[in-house]
Write a structure and sequence with these properties.
Number of helices: 7
Structural class: alpha+beta
Largest sheet: 8 strands, mixed
Shape: globular
Number of strands: 13
Bound molecules: biotin
Length: 254
């Protein structure tokens, strides 16, 4: 897999070094260890399978064979840090559209959905010291060639590209396209071009009545807008406005 990717990849930063595992606990855990040992920017850790994939908010992320699990080490500036979430989910949406023609949307802040079911999750972990980003690890998990139907608990709210398409996708091609797209957006962000406007266009959450779980707290209201840093403005039923920077969104019926 890594030889095919290396041969086809035309990026300058992302994928300069690719470390491929057949099975690993978590690509993000490995990438963070490498980042602490000062691995170069753009290093990618990829695995055919994760046995203890990490999800957002302390959850487990299921990564069976056929799914895509990779983590990228980046060295963004402090200003670019909030843009990583936007650029990653936007890159996934673009690649899904280019390679499959499927219409994917983003559920705030960074879940990618097809037909209202989750197909991709993004987890960004970073280390900041004295206003300097030591590193960021962008973890991307995509249900590519996976049959989720034997797991009714999961298939109620998740889907895969192969299920939506009715055929499998050649995974290395998908990886090459994804790394190229993330790099394009990353280089643009470094040049001052934010992914914000296009990311916002794909946000299906805007305008909807939602419930957001923020730690132990729950807020309900209408998702009114998003700020340039990606935070969400929620109009509560009493008319007041609140800004949410992280949380788990459930779309409610109007
Ligand atoms: C989510 O909860 O939606 C985020 C899931 C992120 C999963 C990816 S798979 C590659 C990387 N390694 C991990 O352990 N997690 C991320």
């Amino acid at each position: 897999m890594e030889n095919f990717i290396k041969e086809k990849l035309r990026t300058k930063i992302i994928g300069r070094r690719i470390i491929h595992y057949i099975s690993v606990a978590s690509t993000t855990e490995i990438a963070k260890k490498l980042a602490l040992e000062r691995a170069e920017e753009g290093t990618v850790v990829i695995a055919d399978e994760q046995t203890l994939g990490r999800g957002r908010l302390g959850r487990i992320w299921l990564s069976p064979k056929g799914s895509l699990a990779l983590s990228i080490i980046l060295h963004p500036s402090l200003e670019q840090l909030p843009q990583l979430i936007m650029m990653t989910s936007l890159a996934v949406v673009r690649v899904i559209s280019h390679l499959t023609g499927l219409k994917a949307v983003i559920k705030w802040p960074n879940d990618v959905l097809i037909n209202s079911k989750k197909v991709c999750g993004v987890l960004i972990e970073n280390e900041v010291e004295d206003d300097r980003v030591e590193f960021a690890v962008v973890g991307i998990g995509i249900n590519v060639n996976v049959d989720l139907s034997p797991f009714p608990d999961i298939s109620a709210f998740a889907t895969s590209l192969s299920q939506e398409l009715g055929r499998e996708i050649f995974l290395p091609d998908f990886v090459v396209a994804l790394l190229s797209e993330v790099e394009k957006l990353y280089v643009q962000a470094q040049a001052g071009v934010s992914p914000y406007t296009e990311w916002k266009d794909y946000l299906e959450t805007l305008g909807k009545r939602i419930r957001v779980k923020i730690g132990e707290m729950i807020e309900e209201g209408r998702a009114e807008s998003v700020a340039e840093d990606g935070s969400l403005f929620l109009r509560r039923d009493d008319g007041s406005l609140t800004k949410v920077t992280a949380g788990e969104v459930t779309i409610l019926k109007d």
